[in-house]
Predict the 3D structure of the following.
Amino acid sequence: MKKSHRLLGLFSNFDEATKAIYDIRADKVSGVSVNDVTLISPIEHPEVEEALGDRGVHVQFFTLFGGLFGLIGSWLWISAAQATFLVQPQGGKPVVTLVTNFVLNYEMMILGGVLFTLIGLLVGARLPSRPGTLYSEKISLDQIGILLEVNEPNLAPLKSLFHLHNVVEIREEIIR
């Protein structure tokens, strides 16, 4: 079922934000899980991130794909370039050699891995992106935001949970 509302709770006390996330994790609001929580903060909060738990990271797959793409692509590219030199005297040596191309292939594997890691990081962080309509400048100063997408029946219990943990402000929008 598609979520119908987006709710942002602004907390000035990071401990209360952590407790709110632990309550969501403890299923005190039915239909809302910790996987629905998006933490918005300009700085790291290890205690809050610990409450969120481990989440899937896919950057390493971008790195692996980039490394393999760089290795195979460079081998094909260099071999194709060397194969065009067939009209030159060979002197009994192979035209396409693995040993002499090893360093170039290795360098291109590293370059591909680094570039695809950067792309994976940008894709995973959803950058560049504009801040949502619920974004508050207070998050850049001294507050932390907890963003959730919920259904209509879960809206009131979630708001009461936020009020229980001394939320400073709640912003809400309807998702179309």
The first strand starts at residue 5 and ends at 11. Residues 98-124 form the longest helix (27 residues). Strands lie at 5-11, 38-40, 144-150, 169-174. The mean pLDDT is 89.
